[in-house]
Amino acid sequence: MKVKYTTMIVKDMDESIKFYTEVMGFEIDSRYDLGPAGAITLLKGEGETMIEIIKNPEDEPGLFSIGMDVEDIHGTVKELKSKGAKVTMEPIPITVGLLAFIEDPNGVRIALIQHH
Q1: DSSP conformation class of 37
Q2: SS3 76
Q3: pLDDT for 30-55, tens place per residue?
Q4: What is the helix (H) or strand (E) element at residue 66, kind and residue range?
Q5: C-alpha span between 103 and 85 (Å, rounded)
């Protein structure tokens, strides 16, 4: 597994984009307007890892999840379960492939993503 992205919920999208681009040196990779559901911006730094910032009316600001790329999501979920991981969402189809969630002992969400 490798870390693909970190997702954060933000209060102010424009202020957050300005911070990550002007202060931290990230570049905007893509932006998605979700209408009343909010907005998503993907920011790319060095290497392959990205930051996903989301503004929505439902979630409190802060770390939302860490996204991990996996080759075989069903096998990975089965293996993690056998080691005692708490699976909070079994694999489901999404636009880019399959997605599942586990939770670490501190309640941090870890998204497992198998891309097409």
Answers
A1: G
A2: helix
A3: 999 999 999 999 999 888 889 999 99
A4: strand 62-69
A5: 7
